[in-house]
Structures are given as structure tokens and as C-alpha cells.
Amino acid sequence: MGKVAVAEGQRTLRAGFVGRVPYAEAVSLQERLRDDLRHGRGPETFLLLEHPHVFTVGRNADRADVLAPDAWLEGHGVTVHTTARGGQVTYHGPGQLVGYPILDLNPDRRDIRRYVHDLQEVMIRTLADFGVEAGRRDGPEHIGVWAEGGKIASIGVHLKRWLTSHGFALNVTTDLEFFGAIVACGLPDVRMVSIESLTGTRFELEEVAARAAHHLAEIFGRRLEPLPAGV
Description:
It is a single chain. The chain is globular. The chain has 5 helices and 10 strands. α3 crosses α5. By secondary structure, it is an alpha/beta fold. A hairpin with a 2-residue loop joins β8 (150-160) and β9. The strands form 2 sheets. It has a 7-stranded mixed beta sheet, sandwiched between helices. Strands 4-3-5 form a 3-stranded mixed beta sheet, with no helix packed on it. The protein has a single domain (13-226), classed as BirA Bifunctional Protein, domain 2, CATH 3.30.930.10.
């Protein structure tokens, strides 16, 4: 995953790409890892994965923003889940890299805006590694990462006692047509893009995940270690 400069006393961050994981299973895994972190049974973890087709409805969302009828959802194999993360309705599916950092922001990073800014920076640096120049936009409705006038990544996080869960979704080789079945992120006219749509290249998710793990460890000052099998 690349070398990160290590300082004495740095916390350990386990990170790895775990493949395709159903949404509900990933939520349960995050809850277990966050509980382990809270009670000192395990270190911080950065889960990197993809989901089967799913629309997730965040705390600030309107279920009506799922525009597709039930017959369409069933025909396309899409499930709908209400979730504890912030944000609106979004799509997850094959070809999209989802990152779930399970971090303890105590004692020195207890600032939700800084945390979101740092997650944006992780993706901006990762995208640069694959030839995409990306950045931020002002306004709470534009939380995420943007490139060439389109939205390439979404952010929706949950904090409990300053322990984090949920995270970001970065379009790598995502089938962008699925976003047409929702009001993505509460923005009716948003244009979604991906690394593939902007560069014409199909990068492997595991390759992109490795760079994201490197940059998250670097930005948060963690010592990066591989995620053990069977976590």
C-alpha cells in the first residue's frame, strides 16, 4: 500500500480491500469494529470495499428521492436501505470504491468539519494518482469531491463519542446510469462522473484502494498495517 512516514507513538491503522460486501453486513461489521475500538479490543480500521447495487437513504434524506418504482428496483437487483450516516440518497454498486474509516478522533481531531475536509483530501490525492484533477465546492449541499464539473465522490459520516463510521464513495468504474433513478445527494441536476468516464481507463478497485489507504494514513498520521484476513 506504499510507505508512510512513521513517527514514534503513532497509532496503528489496519487497512485493506475486502471485496464485495452486502450493505447490511458492512454496517454490522463497522459497528463491531467501532465497539472493539471503543473498548480497547482493537486498533483503528479502514475498510475498503464495494457493494452490490443499493440505494442508501441518509438521515437528511427524503425517501421520495428514490425515483424508481419497486418494479424497476426488483428488475435491476437494487435494494434500498435507511442508514445512520449523514447526507441524502446515494447509490452504491460494483465499480465504486467505498471507504469506511473506523477512527478515534479523540483527543485532538474533534472537529466534524475538519474530518470531512480530511476525507475530501484523501480522495483528491487519490484521484491525482490516477490522473484526475479534483477539488471541493463551497456549501454544505456540495459535500463530496468534484472533477470536470461533475461529482465523482460522496461523503456521509456518522460519529458517536468521536468514533467514526460510514465514510465515502468514490466512482471508479461505476455504472453511472443507476444515479438516474434517484435524486443523488439531494441535487436534482447533478452530473455524476467516474475515473473511467474522465480518463477512459478501467483501474482495478484494489489498486485505487491501496492509494486511498496510503493517503488516509498520511493525512491522519497513522502507522499503516495490512488488514488481517477474516476481520
